[in-house]
Amino acid sequence: MKYLHTMVRVRDLDASLRFYCEGLGLRETRRMENAAGRFTLIFLAAAETPDAEIELTWNWGSDEDYGSARNFGHLAFRVADIYATCQRLLDMGYTINRPPRDGHMAFVRSPDLISVELLQEGHLPPQEPWASMPNTGVW
Q: Is-contact 79 10, C-beta < 8 A?
């Protein structure tokens, strides 16, 4: 058996690509548009793990509420500098729901409320403003 990908449905393709590509640094590996089925599939991967992809599925014209069910936990990514990653996401207007107070772990949510865990490669010492920042919302 070989793991292929995780699929998440998105409401706004441009907003999702901004989050996953500009914010998290993933890259698009391939794209498929199906006019008959009225959907677009975009596969994304991190440079270090090109075979472990995220499939963004955008159903054209859908107004379906994908909600925030908690049966799906989160996506997780190891990052080289958790403080820089969180600052970039914060500067882009995203809420850091669980700041990296410990220099090791943070959570942020995608535009479609997918929880994303960020884990520091190794450990960084606690650093302000993160060390004093409270949790915001849920993840």
A: no
Contact 43, 29 (CB under 8 A): yes
Active site residue 64: no
State the CB neighbour count (10 A cutoff) for residue 125. Answer: 7
Give the CA distances from residue 64 to residues 4, 10, 14, 61, 103, in Å, rounded to whole numbers and listed in that order.
26, 10, 17, 9, 37
Among 28, 33, 64, 117, the active-site one is 117
Question: Hey, is 87 helix, strand or coil?
Answer: helix
Tell me the two tokens of residue 129: 């403003």
Q: What one-letter code names the amino acid at 45?
A: A
Q: For 54-72, write each residue's pLDDT tens digit.
A: 999 999 998 888 776 666 7
- For residue 9, the cross-strand partners are 57
**pLDDT, tens digit, for every residue of 86-115?**
999 999 999 999 999 999 999 999 998 999
What is this structure's pTM?
0.86
**Which residue in 46, 23, 26 sits closest to 94, CA to CA?**
23
Three-class secondary structure of residue 86 per DSSP:
helix
